[in-house]
């Protein structure tokens, strides 16, 4: 598997010849010129995960890509006619993308504040016939599936979390590899602090891999 980080929560996963892009949002960069995508998956409606201004060009460059989003976001994109037709990812469902199966789980965004409405949030699990839990993107949640995940995209900082919660989530998931995402809300110094704590406090069996900017990393 190769993963390319385009900042914040936007990652490109290349698995068994299949190219799947997650969460092209306003805090991400460099995804605009991508071509040859097999799927575009969006976890939830917040702009840092779904940039409606850049989506039309991205879809225009990848008209063949399957387009999946959480139910609320899919409804909004379809009603506003943003970048073609989007399919709602209902928890418990799945879709085949080339040699990969993308399964939909989770369902709700983490609570930011009791006065802020909680929106839909889909956690996506990618797998193959022989390895069902190869990769998971939880969006803005600490959802734990009832299976072992090989590579986890780990939320590392957000208005809805404390660093200790990210550490506990990483330990509970215990993936083979964890790659930090959702870091754009931090300064460079803050990113270093968060990454250092996660590296120090992870389970010994987990490898913590910081992805390079816009360059593919094999994990």
Automatic annotation (TrEMBL):
<dbReference type="InterPro" id="IPR001279">
    <property type="entry name" value="Metallo-B-lactamas"/>
</dbReference>
<dbReference type="Pfam" id="PF13483">
    <property type="entry name" value="Lactamase_B_3"/>
</dbReference>
<feature type="domain" description="Metallo-beta-lactamase">
    <location>
        <begin position="7"/>
        <end position="182"/>
    </location>
</feature>
<dbReference type="InterPro" id="IPR036866">
    <property type="entry name" value="RibonucZ/Hydroxyglut_hydro"/>
</dbReference>
<protein>
    <submittedName>
        <fullName>Beta-lactamase</fullName>
    </submittedName>
</protein>
<dbReference type="InterPro" id="IPR050114">
    <property type="entry name" value="UPF0173_UPF0282_UlaG_hydrolase"/>
</dbReference>
């Amino acid at each position: 598997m190769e993963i390319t980080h385009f900042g914040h929560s936007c990652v490109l996963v290349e698995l068994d010849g299949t190219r799947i892009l997650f969460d092209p949002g306003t805090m991400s960069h460099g995804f605009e010129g991508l071509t040859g995508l097999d799927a575009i998956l969006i976890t939830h409606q917040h702009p840092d995960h779904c940039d409606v201004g850049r989506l039309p060009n991205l879809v225009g460059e990848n008209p063949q890509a399957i387009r999946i989003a959480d139910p609320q976001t899919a409804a909004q994109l379809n009603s506003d006619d943003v970048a073609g037709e989007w399919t709602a990812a209902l928890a418990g469902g799945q879709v085949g993308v080339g040699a990969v199966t993308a399964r939909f789980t989770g369902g709700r965004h983490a609570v930011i504040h009791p006065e802020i409405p909680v929106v839909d949030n889909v956690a996506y699990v990618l797998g193959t016939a022989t390895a069902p839990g190869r990769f998971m993107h939880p969006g803005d949640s600490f959802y734990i599936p009832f299976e072992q995940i090989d590579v986890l995209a780990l939320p590392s900082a957000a208005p809805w979390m404390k660093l200790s919660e990210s550490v506990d989530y990483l330990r509970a998931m215990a993936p083979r590899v964890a790659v930090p995402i959702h870091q754009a809300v931090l300064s460079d110094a803050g990113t270093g602090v968060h990454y250092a704590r996660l590296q120090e406090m992870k389970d010994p069996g987990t490898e913590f891999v910081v992805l390079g900017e816009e360059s593919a990393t094999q994990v």
